[in-house]
Amino acid sequence: MSKPGQQLDLQTDPRRDFQAEMSLRAPALARQASASRVRLLASARFARLLVLGLVCLAQLGCGFHLRGVVEIPTELNPLYIQAAGNSPVREALVDQLAGSEVALAATAGEARLILRIFSESRSSQVVAVDSSGRVLAYELHYFVSYDAVTPDGAQKVPAQSLDLVRNFDNPDVEVLGKQLEEALIYQDFARDAADRILMRLRVTLL
Known about the structure:
With 206 residues, the protein is an alpha+beta fold. It has a domain at 66-205: Double Stranded RNA Binding Domain, CATH 3.30.160.150. The chain contains three helices and four strands. The chain has helices spanning 14-62, 88-97, 175-205; strands at residues 79-82, 113-129, 135-149, 155-169. Helix 1 crosses helix 3 (175-205) and helix 2 crosses helix 3 (175-205). The radius of gyration is 31 Å and the shape is elongated.
């Protein structure tokens, strides 16, 4: 109780009030920051998927191929591609050869050179996990083996294989988004394999 004639000090310390207010608001601010970070990461992932999708569509629409670069000796033209009916590498090869001077034979009997795709396979393995065991990243592999022979069996390109590798971060997005990005990576693998096979034909045969 104050003495007569003495006034009570009703003023408060602004710094203490500010610190108290910030301590009360800190959890809410942290949650907002975390939510903003998650939205930002999701937006970045979506933008990446969108760009990959648009690039893929552009390549398909424009008939992406190596014009003027793919060539084989005239005496080995036309070429027949022997592969499984659902071979992504075969599709990529046909697409790229469409703009070149290399003709495609409808059957092996009509060809002077036969490109044989023996096998195509894909696999993945975990390369990073967090402290709780959640997978953070995979390593994707695309394996292709092939050779090239003439119709009478003479080998023009020895049997060889490709093992294409790429890391794939496990995104914090819906399963459909993960599947889409993984599918686009494997499509890119097939195009890359086709590029390498055609380059090997050119280097070996010319």
